[in-house]
Amino acid sequence: MRLDHLSYAAEHDGLRATAARLGKAIGVAPVDGGLHPRFGTRNVVLPLAGGHYVEVVEVLEHPVADKAPYGRAVRARSQAGGGWLGWAVAVDDLAPVEARLGRQAVPGNRHRPDGVELRWHQIGINGLIADPQLPFFTHWEVEPGLHPSVDADGTVKLAGLRIAGSPERLCEWLGQPGDHPLDEVDVEWVAPHGTPGLLSAFFDTPTGRVEV
Q: How far apart are the C-alpha atoms of 94 and 89, rounded to whole Å?
């Protein structure tokens, strides 16, 4: 299990402007990700070193967005002004997660502008909606060379997260012991004053550490 990516809902000026602003802040060139036809969303990717990336995501005006939990979550966050929507962990096998959560993962896919199709299964969006400190789970079904992080130039790295919530709740959700189950990034926990969730992310860049 490892941290895979962070999701950022588009702000009032839309997907591309939001992605350009974030990319400039951390020094990463945005990459057009394409449409998620099953979720009614589309994204732009900010690839990072270490196998991580940020996806900036926008809901489409399409009926499927009102049916898919992910589409509803993106719409709600953007309507609230946009910002950090959540985070995802990648696992090699979703079966234990499905057994623990009592439901099945759903397929996801998107076609990049060059026509390449990326495929995965994911689970846990309803958990994120109910308790935004919690990540969702994904299992990639493509070769490692197609992971969205591969376009990274290696100069910008995800260093840590600040989350309003409870490490004990996270460990319960992940099915992992201890208070720091994800070793590749630091997690700073703060007591929630209102809705829990991902408050900010820290990036190590050639010009120093940047908080978004």
A: 11
Which residue matches tokens 């709600």?
76
Render pLDDT for 47-78 as a digit per residue (tens, 0 to 9).
Answer: 999 999 999 999 999 999 999 999 999 999 99
Q: State how far the Cα of 178 lies from the Cα of 168, in Å rounded to an integer.
A: 8
Q: How confident is the model at residue 175 (pLDDT cuts 50, 70, 90)?
A: confident
Cα 19 → chain centroid: 14
Q: Which two tokens stand for residue 134?
A: 């919690």
Reported in sequence order, the residue ranges of the chain that DSSP labels E, i.e. its strands, are: 2-9, 31-36, 41-47, 53-59, 83-90, 106-111, 117-123, 136-140, 157-164, 186-190, 197-205, 208-211
Distance CA 172, CA 29 (A): 36
Superfamily of segment(s) 2-153: 2,3-Dihydroxybiphenyl 1,2-Dioxygenase, domain 1 (3.10.180.10)
Name the 3-class secondary structure at 205.
strand
The domain locations on the chain are: 2-153
Looking at 142-146, 157-161, 191-195, which range is the least confident one?
191-195
pLDDT tens profile 98-118: 999 999 999 999 999 999 999
Beta strands in 99-150 (DSSP E): 106-111, 117-123, 136-140
Which residue type occupies 70?
Answer: Y
pTM of the predicted protein model: 0.94
